[in-house]
Amino acid sequence: MEQFLDNKVAVVTGGTRGIGRAIAEALAGCGASVAICGRSEAAVAKAAGELGPKVVGRAADVSNPEEVRALFEFVEERLGGLDILVNNAGVGSFASVAETSLESWQRTIGTNLNGVFYCSREALARFRKRGGGFIVNISSLAARNPFAGGAAYNASKFGLNGFSEAMMLDHRYENVRVSTIMPGSVNTEFGSQGAADWKVAPQDIAEIVLGVLRMPERTLISRVEVRPTKPHK
Ligand SMILES: NC(=O)c1ccc[n+]([C@@H]2O[C@H](COP(=O)([O-])OP(=O)(O)OC[C@H]3O[C@@H](n4cnc5c(N)ncnc54)[C@H](OP(=O)(O)O)[C@@H]3O)[C@@H](O)[C@H]2O)c1
To answer: Is the pTM of this model over 0.85?
Structure first.
């Protein structure tokens, strides 16, 4: 694979499985040093081991600002700076508003929205030292299509899109490019439908991330929508 990310350092949140793992693998395959996180220490150690010498891991819950700070300090210490943040960690809880528990609401917003803010803030402070950087946010088509049972998830992803695009406008003149990727169904264990071959493959999302990062400095892919060609009827 073309080594266009040699000497770059990337963080991929939620890199232990699914889309995040495919992105971490693709970035490392193009030469980047990559740090992944997830809440389970065992899963982080296992995934980092399987992904090879370019990938390190540390357990961190992105909804906890202290754990996020410790993650970025670890990355700085181990990999010496930061060029790319992929905010991928996300959870889905699907129920009507009346049936949504406080815990489920807080976990969804805490991970999918607050977590992106906590990680982006840490990354932006480090990008300043490098003269720029990239933030790629994994949002969802649920960021523009409300559906019954999706109130918490829709709110988190609608919020993420607004946050992401405002952040793009805030920091573009500092050589920081922010992209929002909005997948439809992707073939992972996420959600209630489970895995299926008709869905977009996680590797296809990783390919989009590489495409975003490959753009010349003058060009910013700010938003991408992607969906299965033939969704299950
Ligand atoms: N799959 C889809 O159809 C689809 C479609 C559109 C958008 N997305 C978005 O794509 C992203 C990844 O989804 P996926 O399908 O790959 O899900 P997944 O297979 O369930 O993987 C989620 C990853 O995030 C980690 N994670 C969850 N909560 C976390 C937290 N609080 N702190 C740190 N890590 C956390 C998980 O590890 P632990 O559980 O061990 O923490 C895991 O590594 C999410 O943002 C999701 O909303 C998915």
So the answer is: yes
